[in-house]
Fold 5-amino-6-(5-phosphoribosylamino)uracil reductase.
Amino acid sequence: MALVCLLASALLPPPAPARPTPSTPTHLPRSTAESFRPPAPTRARLPPPRSRAIRASLPPTHDEWMLYALRLAERGRLTTAPNPWVGCVIIGADGSTVLGEGWHVVKGGPHAEAAALADARERGVPREQMEGGTAYVTLEPCHAGVGKTTPPCDEALVASGLRRVHIALVDPDPTFGNAGVGHLREHGVDVTVGTAAAAVAASLRPYLHHRRTRLPYVVLKAAPSADGAIACADGSSQWITGGGARAHAQLLRASSRAILVGSGTALADEPRLTLRLDDAPVPPEWHTPAVGPLRVVLDGRGRVVSGPLLDPTLAPTLIFTTAAAPASSRRVWEAAGVEVCEVGAGPHGEGVSLEQVLVELGGRGVLQLMVEGGGALLGCFLAQRVAQQMRLYIGACVLGSDARRWIQAPIASSIEEAQRWKLLDVQRLGDDVCLDYLLPGGNFDP
């Protein structure tokens, strides 16, 4: 009986300690502090990571603590851009006790390491206990340099007395990469790089791609029928997918710094492209933005002169056009208060140059760009191979041969020229299915 009770107690997870609910930081500038809402009061602290039941009484492994830090980082996924979302947890010498934890919430706010150290101070952790502890950080701590707006985290970790730091990924930003690791090691800190690197890199794909290419991570989103159509012959399409799939797509929209459509979609559908998270599957502990992503319209000929996309009170709008746009359209845009950027024409003088559009958006700090246009625009992105991910919501309906296909561009003239993508994930959303594909060979590996 004693053995049975011992095994039963080992299988039960320890109770999660209570933690005060985070609130909007008052030390941030008003415009910054109001750009996110604090998480719901439930699940303010994550439960400690648990191993398999057979070893549940042992301390978590280094990888498990890094995955814990990653879950903290994800809380800021929707609000930190153009900064990366980063998490940090500090563990005591016993390998099981959380001394402090934190995550980055918004640009200009405390970084994850600073938040974790502040949490440790609030808990009253003495310096001698910190000296025996270990910090787990999902991304290399920042170093002093030009353009820094917050204190360097590597110096803060050294000053805390910590002697061991595990880092999942070195920062790919050429301005700071490896500088934080070097500073820690120069001051006697034992640094391990690569802990749970694959999982953290998967989360940070948009940031890694942007810092290595200076271009946005492009996600193509489409909601075709089971036979690959996005509209009937008469143009009607509401709705091919159900409410669950449409709510799920709002999370992708919230994860993106900008959302892009072409002039055809802008004229035919008059979309608002605003953020609607009431029914979206956002984890309750995540911070959510108060303003939706930048709305981007490709309009080389100046056709979009009315509609909700010209209403900047809904969300900011940026129109990419060419020299072919008439002066009358430019006057309408100026009067509406939307921003206009002139670029060159696309291939064969049609449309706009996607290359120039991506360079401009990358320079503005857009980490992730969601493309939600029609078949012609999606086909252009695929044909020019400038997308990194596809998100397809397959509706449980069939529209037939007269319907409009979700890709309207030549891609391959033979099977040898077919684009091969890697299936990342499959989710069932009621009667619909969500498929995520990744273009192999991208700039987001560890």
